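Query structure, 555 tokens:
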């Protein structure tokens, strides 16, 4: 029996209240106000509130914000800590480091000097502020509602989304209080779910949007927020580094930013193209903090928040086509992050703003929806955001191909000549395909956490405020339940036990001593690393019941 569903009609539906989605919503209403035209815009957000699922470093470049809200200072935008000083380190061992002079740092990584001030911010708080601006402009924002399906015509044209049902039990049957999800129909739908969006992933496949691009590449970003003594706090100090504890075949880097209110943000970004299945990004992050370069900023402090998420870092070479009949992919759903700058908020916002202008122009001209707005591509490719990605197209592939040191040197020379002048390096190997058999590596014995600088995974997940209703269907779907034990365990020592930063996956023994694959989906912080790195591509992440997942404060 088919469930009867209510529906609501809007001019534009936006999936995801991140920087791209909210910038698009604001720009749409600004355009409507300017033209004195009525426009209905709705944003759905799977987190319990706007900002609950937002996690980023973050050093923010306000170029797009200046264009969206030229008077952002008077409006109270939460940009309170200007960048004051940059330091870049190569960690050579557990206790040795080399500080690199600014003259050897690629210009894309400079955060001080130049014509525009950068800021150390909380991306979550920035999104909360953007949501306030959007609502003042007349946008409807629905937090706690997860977009579960794309609504399409028989010919494939996108007509909106289906919000997931609420109150479904683990057995798939309705519980007391069951509420069927609504159809939110629109002339155009913008998908701004962030990295590896589960609807964006399906749209890329359905419309072959990536047929002319390299496979997308990802990193996993792990972050903690620390309260530190006031005498150790230097607002605006920005540290970046690479090297130890990652080996020469494992690429990534760390950051440590001094924000406001005597807080420090520290994190590790590790490429998901790594080879060694014994690696644990979480444990690499924990031991990294013991290096003296980082420890001196954290000693005497208190860890107050933890989180993790995947990020798109493939850049221009991996950017899919962003248009299809009835909608667009924007922000990290497409992969607009500029990894050469270690920044993506400004490019995500710009992609959303261009999408909004394109959609509004179509609707204002009488378009009833369902078209493929190819004019977006022309406007996007003429933008400064696209130019940034073009100038740094080789940044990630060079490091993948030549390693952190040689690849970094290639990028330094490339940037020296203005970016994009040297041959464009490509990387066509998907991240999941780089994993090698466990037998080729020694098992890694990570040091036990000391409870001062390093911590265990469960106490970390506790600090993410993650919560899911236990009696609901598991949102981590296995195409073949036999694969983890039958294939992944003997070949790769089942790497899901280690690449997951939240302890979701375990191999346990049953009463007969046989290994079983256990999924603790309640721990899931929605990073989607499993969907990306599983060597069999057997795990599919879908959105759980709305409101579930982490509840990040100030991240």
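Result returned for the query:
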């Amino acid at each position: 029996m088919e469930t009867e569903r209510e529906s609501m009609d809007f001019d534009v539906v936006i999936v995801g209240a991140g920087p791209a989605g909210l910038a698009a919503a604001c720009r749409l209403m600004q355009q409507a106000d300017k033209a004195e035209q009525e426009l209905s815009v709705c944003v759905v957000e799977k987190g319990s509130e706007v900002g609950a699922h937002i996690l980023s470093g973050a050093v923010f470049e306000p170029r797009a914000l200046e264009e969206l809200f030229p008077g952002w200072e008077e409006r109270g935008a939460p940009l309170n800590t200007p960048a004051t000083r940059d330091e870049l380190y190569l960690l050579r061992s557990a206790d040795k480091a080399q500080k690199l002079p600014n003259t050897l740092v690629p210009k894309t990584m400079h955060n001080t000097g130049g014509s525009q001030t950068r800021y150390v911010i909380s991306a979550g708080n920035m999104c909360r502020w953007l949501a306030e601006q959007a609502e003042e402009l007349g946008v409807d924002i629905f937090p706690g509602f997860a977009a579960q399906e794309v609504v399409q015509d028989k010919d494939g044209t996108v007509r909106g989304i289906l919000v997931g049902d609420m109150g479904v039990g683990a057995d798939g049957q309705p519980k007391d209080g069951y509420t069927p999800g609504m159809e939110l129909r629109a002339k155009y739908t913008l998908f701004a779910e962030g990295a590896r969006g589960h609807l964006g992933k399906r749209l890329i496949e359905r419309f072959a949007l990536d047929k002319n691009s390299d496979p997308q590449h990802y990193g996993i970003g792990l972050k903690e927020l620390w309260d530190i003594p006031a005498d150790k706090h230097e607002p605006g100090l920005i540290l970046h580094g690479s090297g130890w504890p990652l080996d020469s075949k494992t690429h990534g880097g760390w950051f440590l930013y001094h924000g406001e209110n005597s807080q420090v943000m520290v994190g590790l970004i590790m490429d998901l193209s790594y080879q060694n299945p014994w690696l644990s990004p979480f444990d690499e992050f924990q031991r990294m903090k013991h290096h003296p370069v980082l420890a001196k900023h954290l000693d005497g402090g208190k860890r107050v928040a933890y989180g993790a998420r995947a990020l798109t870092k493939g850049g221009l070479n991996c950017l899919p086509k962003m248009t299809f009949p009835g909608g667009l992919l924007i922000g990290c759903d497409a992969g607009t992050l500029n990894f050469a700058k270690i920044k993506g908020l400004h490019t995500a916002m710009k992609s959303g703003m261009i999408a909004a202008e394109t959609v509004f122009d179509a609707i204002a001209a009488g378009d009833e929806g369902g078209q493929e707005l190819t004019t977006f591509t022309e406007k996007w490719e003429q933008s400064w955001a696209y130019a940034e990605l073009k100038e740094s197209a080789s940044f990630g592939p060079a490091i993948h191909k030549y390693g952190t040191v040689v690849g970094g040197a290639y990028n330094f020379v490339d940037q020296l000549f203005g970016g994009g002048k040297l041959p464009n390096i490509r990387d066509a190997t998907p991240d999941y395909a780089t994993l090698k058999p466990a037998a080729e590596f020694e098992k890694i014995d990570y040091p036990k956490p000391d409870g001062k600088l390093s911590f265990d995974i469960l106490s970390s997940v506790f600090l993410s405020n993650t919560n899911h209703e236990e009696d609901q269907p598991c949102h981590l779907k296995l195409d073949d339940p036999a694969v983890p034990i039958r294939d992944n365990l003997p070949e790769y020592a089942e790497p899901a036990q280690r690449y997951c930063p939240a302890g979701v996956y375990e191999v346990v023994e049953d009463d007969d001593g046989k290994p079983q694959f256990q999924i603790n989906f309640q721990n899931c912080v929605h990073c989607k690393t499993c969907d990306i790195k599983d060597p069999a591509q057997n795990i599919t992440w879908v959105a759980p019941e709305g409101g579930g997942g982490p509840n990040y404060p100030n991240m």
